[in-house]
Amino acid sequence: MTTIAQPKTALSAAGVKDIPAQSEGFVFNHTMLRIKDPVKSLEFYTGVLGMTLLRHSQFPDAKFDLYFLAKLTEEERANLPQTADLTAYVSRQRSILELTHNYGTENDADFSYHNGNSDPRGFGHICFSVPDLAKAVAWFDENGVEFQKRPEDGSMKDIAFIKDPDGYWVEIIELKY
Amino acid sequence: MTTIAQPKTALSAAGVKDIPAQSEGFVFNHTMLRIKDPVKSLEFYTGVLGMTLLRHSQFPDAKFDLYFLAKLTEEERANLPQTADLTAYVSRQRSILELTHNYGTENDADFSYHNGNSDPRGFGHICFSVPDLAKAVAWFDENGVEFQKRPEDGSMKDIAFIKDPDGYWVEIIELKY
C-alpha cells in the first residue's frame, strides 16, 4: 500500500494513519437527513439559512423524493453550470445537504423523526459557521426559529444551537480568521 | 428583508425561498456523529477514507473529546496553515466531520450508538464521492470494510453503502464530470 504522510501541522492521535493513495480524490460530499415535510424544511434551509436547491430527485413509484441543497457563495451562484441537471456538479461539491421525504409523513400529525440526541443516541447535529453570531441569532429570532441553546445559555457563550423543522440540531458558530 | 434571487439554474419547489441577505457568508461547516471508540474511528476515517485530523478538543472534566477531520486535496494539504491550532481554519471549511467520544464507551462491550436507519429513524448517512467506484470497492474489501449495500445489490448499481466502525452508513458514489 502506498501512503502519503499527513500534513506537518495536522494532529496525531491513537488510530490516526497516513493517507492511503487509494483515497486520493475522495470527496466528503453530503449528509442525509430524513424530513417530515419538505415545504417546511425547504422554507427553513433556503429562506432562513440561505441554501440553494440544486437537485430534486423524484421516485413516485417508491414514494419518496430527495432534495440536495448547498450554501453557495455569491461567486458560486454566479458560476453555477447553465444546465437544468446539476447532478454532476452536486457530486463534486462538499457540504451538500440531502433531505429525504417519504410521501405522506407531512400529513400524519403523530409522525416525527428522531434527532439522535435522546436515546437511542447517535447522530448529533449539523453546523453552520456564520460571520457574526449575534446578528445570526437576531435573524433566527426574527424568523421564529426555535433554539436548543442560545449563546448565553451554559458556559459556551460562542455557540448556539437552533432546531430545524424536524427538531434536528443545527449548531451555529462564528467564523474565525 | 433584503433577498437575493436564487441562481437561474437552481431548482424551485414548494417551500423554496429567495436567499436572505442575512445569510450571506454562512458556511455549512460540519456534521457531528458520536463514536464508541476513537481509535477504530480514526483508523477508518484516516487510514481507509484518507481524512486528516485537524482539531482535537479534549474536555477531561466533562469526560469527552471532539475530533474534527477533513478530506483534503493534495493542494489543501500543502497549504495547511503552519500553526498547531487549526480551529480558525476548521471554522471556515466545508465538509468537516466532527466525531464525539464520551469516555469509556470503548470499554463497554454492550454499548453501541444508533445509526438512524432503523426505528426510531432520522439521520441517514454521510456520503463520499470517489473517482472510481470499482476501485474504491476493491480498496474497501482489501481493508475488510463491511458493506450495507454493494454496487451489484439492488437496482442502483452506481451506489454502494459501507459501514463505519459504529455502523453509520457511508454512501459511496462516483464523481461525475
Automatic annotation (TrEMBL), chains A, B:
The GO terms describing molecular function are: lactoylglutathione lyase activity; metal ion binding
Q: Reply yes or no: does the keyword Nucleotide-binding apply.
A: no
* Catalytic activity entry: (R)-S-lactoylglutathione = methylglyoxal + glutathione
> Which top-rank group of organisms is this from?
Bacteria
Q: Which residues cross the membrane?
A: none
List ligand-binding residues for Zn(2+): 98, 125, 171
Leading EC class: lyase
The EC designation for this entry is 4.4.1.5
Cofactor(s) named in the record: Ni(2+); Zn(2+)
Q: Which NCBIfam families match?
A: glyox_I
Q: What is this protein called?
A: Lactoylglutathione lyase
Q: In which organism is this protein found?
A: Moraxella caviae
Task: List the taxonomic lineage.
Answer: Bacteria, Pseudomonadati, Pseudomonadota, Gammaproteobacteria, Moraxellales
